[in-house]
Amino acid sequence: MTSDTPAESKTLLTNRNAFGLDSTSVRVDSVVIIYSPDPHSLGKRYTLDKDALTIGRGRGNDIILDVDSVSRRHARLERRADRTILVDLGSTNGTFVNDLQVKTHALGRGDQIRIGDTIFKFLSGSDAEAQYHEAIYRMTIVDGLTGAYNMRYFHEQLESELARAHRYDRPLALVMIDIDHFKRVNDEHGHLVGDRVLERVAKLVQDRLRPSDVFARYGGEEFVILLPETDLTGAQTFADQIRKKLAQGPLEAGATTVAVTASFGVAEREAGAGATTLLTHADACLYEAKAAGRNTVRPAADATTMP
Question: Would you call 221 a catalytic residue per the annotation?
Answer without folding.
Answer: yes
